[in-house]
């Protein structure tokens, strides 16, 4: 079947070849046509539109005669580019579309990319149809990416930045300019240096950075002169004139505007336009003439076919030989393809193994962090608990610097463990925002009160300024918001002395039920150097740390950045050395009075039980047994302690308890299995998991085992007793 298709293709090719070859009065070599298309492009670069159009016309005629789709595409593209330069934009679009038509007949993605890029230029800069123009640019980038033509991507990105800047959309255009600046050394050259510097000048001018803007514009003018790029040079003078005008430097603005007019007049003088217009009309007339000639050529070719039978026979013999060579080539290619497929299959297997190893490493990392946090929290629970017991039982030690240092160190180590675990949860996409009703003023003032000790340490004041237009109750994750504010304010207090930290909270805008709140944390501390401002949001980075002071782990701002990512928000900062720093971010919270009332109505109310509470603690660590028992008995509850799950089952068989505090990680039998056995005994006593594991890791298994709630060690005793009271009241 395959051989039949090849023969049919050969016969069709032969017929097509015979019907056209005799109509051709002259064949042209690829080298000759390429030389013409190159000449036309060079004349275009020199703004010699008349010569460029004349040469393009000749190249187009010979390309059509030779049936060279690639050369035809290039010729039409050059003709269209000439019309674009002559401000004949409708004609330019017409010829660019003809170029696209022939480009689609080739496999040349480079041509596709450049034509789409050129159409993007016209629609953006001349037709002012920016959406359509940007669409052409994006298609150009897709074709360039197919062939990994980073150089063409570089040029298209430059055009996209220019298009956005042209309409004042600097923020949309900046990512493309950033790409251009990043790869400028690799793909930039003298011909586009002027445009790149001009775009940087426009962006810095928009940002109000006069020094960088001026330097960029001057570099653009210099590059335009050196490369003799008259068009880019004229635009550089024009944009620099606008910048100078905004500065109030009217004299220099006028001089640059005058220079722009001079260069433009030089490029587009009346004589050149008239001559080029005549040449362009000739190209259009050739299009119509070519359609008529096509029918005449076909008619003449049919007559010649009859008289050239011998030639046809010879050609058939030649094509037969070619077919044999083609079959041999296909055979060789088939063997090569099989070999290549085998190599690709091996490579794919290796990539799959590498992917599985990476996933396994990620799981091991999460397990490692979880295990380490558990192993650290367990002894820390004992250290923090015993420290509190010593302070309660020996009031004379309240001022002991050694005991204070011990308590502070334990708290810091616990904070570090929590920070690392939290970063790991965010990176593993295991953190989900909650929707709770809250009063923003209450939350901020709670943060302020929590940090009052740190403020006094450096003789600072915390000032809160809240926009009265913000509703009393909003819906969102107040815990994560408080954590963000806490980290930013504590960071500001550390690097400020004898000053103030101001928390500005303003209603920026309202969209439906979403209230966009802007938070601004401002201090007058030591400030952050410009070169360090990007680094401070990285993990474990500490800028300006001294050996004699204590400034934390370098995780706070990294957590802030990642938490804001959960809110679909970003953080920005402004800072000057010796004057202070401002952190700013925007979060949308829901305002829904009806939903707020439902949430408030569903809040559990603590009801103190009427009788003495009997608590069973199941814990294998003796230090933790002591700490937990002391904490419970301090609240006038009765407490019994057992070492393992089996002992718990025995004591529950003969004694009633109001609540059970269950450790999870125990020898012999763990807390989950112990709970399951308790429930099989028919005992409905509430069980609280008192564990050093992260809550998110064990919640699902805890619920399936029959555990009612979870509290993480080290815990806040107030929270523990609140949970006990609620569970006993429900029971």
UniProtKB/TrEMBL annotation:
Organism: Flavobacterium psychrolimnae
Keyword tags: Coiled coil, Kinase, Membrane, Phosphoprotein, Signal, TPR repeat, Transferase, Transmembrane, Transmembrane helix
Protein name: histidine kinase
Coiled-coil ranges from the UniProt annotation: 278-305
GO MF annotation list: phosphorelay sensor kinase activity
Catalytic activity from the UniProt record: ATP + protein L-histidine = ADP + protein N-phospho-L-histidine
Signal sequence bounds: 1-23
4-aspartylphosphate: residues carrying this PTM: 663
Primary enzyme class: transferase
């Amino acid at each position: 079947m395959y051989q039949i298709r090849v023969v049919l293709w050969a016969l069709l090719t032969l017929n097509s070849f015979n019907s056209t070859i005799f109509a051709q009065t002259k064949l042209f070599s690829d080298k000759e046509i390429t030389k013409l298309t190159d000449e036309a492009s060079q004349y275009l670069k020199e703004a010699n539109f008349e010569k460029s159009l004349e040469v393009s016309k000749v190249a187009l005629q010979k390309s059509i005669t030779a049936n060279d789709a690639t050369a035809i595409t290039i010729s039409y593209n050059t003709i269209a580019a000439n019309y674009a330069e002559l401000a004949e934009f409708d004609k330019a679009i017409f010829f660019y579309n003809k170029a696209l038509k022939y480009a689609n007949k080739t496999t040349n993605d480079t041509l596709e990319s450049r034509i789409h890029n050129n159409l993007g230029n016209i629609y953006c800069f001349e037709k002012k149809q920016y959406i359509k123009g940007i669409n052409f640019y994006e298609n150009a980038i897709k074709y360039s990416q197919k062939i990994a033509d980073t150089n063409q991507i570089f040029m298209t990105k430059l055009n996209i930045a220019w298009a956005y800047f042209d309409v004042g959309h600097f923020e949309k255009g900046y990512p493309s300019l950033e790409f251009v600046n990043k790869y400028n050394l690799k793909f930039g050259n003298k011909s586009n240096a002027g445009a790149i510097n001009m775009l940087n000048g426009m962006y810095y001018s928009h940002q109000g950075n006069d020094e960088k803007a001026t330097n960029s514009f001057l570099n653009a003018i210099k590059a335009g002169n050196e490369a003799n790029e008259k068009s880019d040079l004229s635009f550089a003078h024009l944009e620099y004139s606008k910048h100078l005008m905004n500065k109030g430097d009217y004299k220099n603005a006028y001089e640059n505007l005058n220079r722009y007019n001079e260069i433009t007049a030089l490029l587009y003088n009346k004589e050149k336009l008239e001559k080029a217009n005549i040449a362009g009309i000739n190209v259009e007339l050739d299009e119509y003439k070519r359609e008529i000639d096509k029918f005449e050529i076909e008619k003449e070719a049919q007559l010649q076919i009859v008289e050239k039978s011998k030639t046809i026979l010879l050609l058939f013999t030649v094509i037969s030989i070619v077919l044999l060579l083609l079959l041999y080539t296909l055979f060789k290619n088939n063997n090569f393809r099989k070999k290549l497929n085998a190599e690709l299959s091996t490579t794919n297997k290796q990539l799959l193994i590498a992917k599985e190893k990476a996933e396994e490493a990620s799981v091991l990392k999460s397990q490692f962090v979880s295990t380490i946090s558990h192993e650290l929290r367990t002894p820390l629970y004992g250290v923090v608990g015993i420290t509190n017991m010593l302070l309660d039982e020996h009031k004379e030690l309240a001022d002991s610097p050694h005991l204070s240092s011990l308590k502070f160190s334990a708290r810091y180590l616990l904070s570090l463990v929590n920070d690392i675990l939290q970063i790991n949860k965010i990176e593993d996409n295991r953190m989900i925002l909650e929707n709770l009703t809250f009063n923003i003023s209450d939350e901020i003032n709670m943060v302020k009160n929590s940090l009052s000790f740190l403020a006094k340490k450096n003789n600072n004041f915390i000032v809160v300024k809240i926009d009265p237009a913000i509703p009393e109750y909003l819906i969102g994750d107040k815990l994560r918001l408080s954590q963000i504010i806490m980290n930013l304010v504590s960071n500001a207090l550390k690097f400020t002395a004898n000053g103030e930290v101001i928390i500005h909270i303003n209603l920026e805008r309202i969209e439906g039920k979403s209230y966009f709140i802007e938070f601004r944390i401002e201090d007058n501390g030591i400030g952050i150097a410009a070169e360090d401002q990007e680094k401070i949001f990285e993990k474990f980075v500490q800028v300006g740390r001294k050996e004699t002071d204590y400034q934390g782990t370098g995780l706070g701002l990294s957590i802030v950045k990642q938490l804001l990512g959960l809110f679909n928000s970003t953080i920005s900062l402004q800072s000057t050395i010796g004057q202070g720093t401002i952190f700013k971010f925007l979060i949308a919270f829901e305002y829904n009075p009806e939903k707020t009332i439902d949430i408030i109505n569903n809040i559990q109310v603590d009801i103190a039980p009427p009788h003495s509470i009997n608590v069973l603690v199941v814990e294998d660590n003796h230090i933790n047994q002591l700490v937990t028992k002391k904490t419970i008995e301090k609240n006038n509850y009765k407490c019994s302690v057992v070492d393992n799950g089996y002992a718990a089952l025995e004591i529950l068989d003969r004694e009633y308890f109001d609540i059970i505090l269950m450790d999870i990680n125990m020898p012999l039998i763990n807390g989950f299995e112990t709970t399951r056995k308790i429930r099989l005994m028919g005992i409905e006593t509430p069980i609280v998991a008192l564990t050093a594991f992260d809550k998110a890791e064990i919640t699902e298994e805890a619920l399936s085992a029959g555990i009612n709630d979870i509290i993480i060690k080290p815990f806040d005793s107030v929270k523990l007793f609140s949970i006990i009271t609620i569970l006993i009241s429900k029971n």
